[in-house]
Amino acid sequence: LKKFSELQEEIDSKTILSCHSLTSSPPGWRILMVPGEPSIPNYINCLKQALIEFNTSIQEIIVAHWHQDHTGGILDICNSINTGITYHIIKLLHNLFMEEVIGNKEQKYVYLKDGDVINTEGATLKILYTPGHTDDHMTLLLEEKNALFSGDCMLGEGTTIFEDLYDFINSLEKLLKVKVDLIYPGHGPVINDAEAKIREYISHRNAWEHQILNFFHDNIGKLFTETNLLKMIYKNTPEHLYKADNINFSFHLNKLEKDGKNYQAQ
Ligand SMILES: [Zn+2]
């Protein structure tokens, strides 16, 4: 997170902040995205300073998904930036409803759904349900800039993790159809060539899938233990790396099942 002083110029030029804290220009109230990790006093201080500087307040807090680096700071904000108004804290439901509690239960989530729109001064944010990284993940389309706040579905550097590869690829395909111009990821720098990056994510996973399918095709009727499968499919990869990728391999197998593509393994 940049220091507020470093962000001043970006605020003045009315661009979106790289920390994704504020989405409209003053003097309107602001939407806070990515409330961050718990117990980061610098973040809270920067946020307080920004709100005072622009004589504004938090309109809503949007939570992209349940992970702690996207929810952990909520309680600190509610406790430290107390305006006497209960904040609306917005997120999407998990697939299987689970009661989600924030701190001492004084704050509760307001659950929205795919396609809902949140308005603030200068910004219209459309919620896009994009599961895969988690089953409650949302991205947000900033209509005025045709830009996407991608949460952890797409990162500015490195690759992201996922709970469900089938859902993850479907979400990427969905984002591809939106045809955004740029992406503000939950972590890392802004992605300027949005379409190319989304296609890169999809093709990276497809390449592994083809490799796995080809292996099964060449070994019809044979039975392998998972360890042997990994050794044969990842034959050009050092063992410590494919062991680390073991969990991704399982995700690929689950996806193949959901796609209805048959394979035999034991
Ligand atoms: Zn995450």
From TrEMBL:
Pfam families: Lactamase_B, WHD_BLACT. The keyword Metal-binding applies. GO terms for molecular function: hydrolase activity; metal ion binding; RNA endonuclease activity; single-stranded RNA binding. GO terms for cellular component: mitochondrial matrix. The keyword Transport does not apply. Residues 38-187 form the Metallo-beta-lactamase domain. It comes from the Eukaryota. InterPro entries: LACTB2_WH, Metallo-B-lactamas, RibonucZ/Hydroxyglut_hydro, Sec-metab_biosynth-thioest, WH-like_DNA-bd_sf. SUPFAM superfamilies: Metallo-hydrolase/oxidoreductase. Keywords: Hydrolase, Metal-binding, Zinc. Endoribonuclease; cleaves preferentially 3' to purine-pyrimidine dinucleotide motifs in single-stranded RNA. The cleavage product contains a free 3' -OH group. Has no activity with double-stranded RNA or DNA. Required for normal mitochondrial function and cell viability. Belongs to the metallo-beta-lactamase superfamily. Glyoxalase II family. This is Endoribonuclease LACTB2. The lineage of its organism: Eukaryota, Metazoa, Chordata, Craniata, Vertebrata.
